[in-house]
Amino acid sequence: MSVIVLLIVASLAVAAGFLGLFLWAVKDGQYDDDTTPAIRILFDDDKRRKRRSSSSGPVGPPDGDVRL
User: Fold this and answer.
1) At 30, which helix (H) or strand (E)?
2) Percent of all residues in the chain with a pLDDT value above 70, rounded to a whole number
3) Rounded to a whole number, what is the largest CA-CA distance in the chain?
4) Does residue 21 fall inside a structural domain?
5) Structural domain of residue 48, as residue ranges?
6) Alpha helices in the chain, H assignment, sequence order
7) CA distances from residue 64 to 1, 4, 27, 61 in whole angstroms, order as listed
8) What's the total number of domains in the chain?
9) Is the model more confident about 54 or about 42?
10) pTM (predicted TM-score)
11) CA pair distance 14, 8, nearest whole angstrom
12) At a CB cut-off of 8 Å and minimum separation 6, what does 31 contact?
């Protein structure tokens, strides 16, 4: 019978730990942006690839921004 009490106490401690971590993540702003991850796949990565390939020579404005 004492094993059951020990398991209940341990499970409540683990549940309280996960609840604390969840509340910390919410307070820290982990779940603030729920729209961008869903549409991130739709963004075009060509700009990023061209910036990496153009880093060998000056192609574009002096500030380093690549215009398409």
Assistant:
1) none
2) 65
3) 75
4) yes
5) 2-54
6) 2-28, 36-39, 46-53
7) 70, 65, 37, 6
8) 1
9) 42
10) 0.49
11) 10
12) 25
**Domain for residue 61, yes or no?**
no
In a domain, 64, yes or no: no
- Binned at pLDDT 50, 70 and 90, residue 61 comes out as low
Instruction: Output 37 or 20, whichever has higher pLDDT.
Output: 20
Residues with Cβ within 8 Å of residue 25, at least 6 apart in sequence: 31
For residue 29, tell me if it sits in a domain: yes
Phi, psi of 4 (to 5 degrees): -65, -45
Over the Cα atoms of the chain, what is R_g? 25
Q: pLDDT tens, 19-36?
A: 999 999 999 988 888 778
User: Is the confidence at residue 51, as pLDDT, over 80?
Assistant: no
| DSSP run (H or E) holding 41 | none
Q: 66 with 51: CB under 8 angstroms?
A: yes
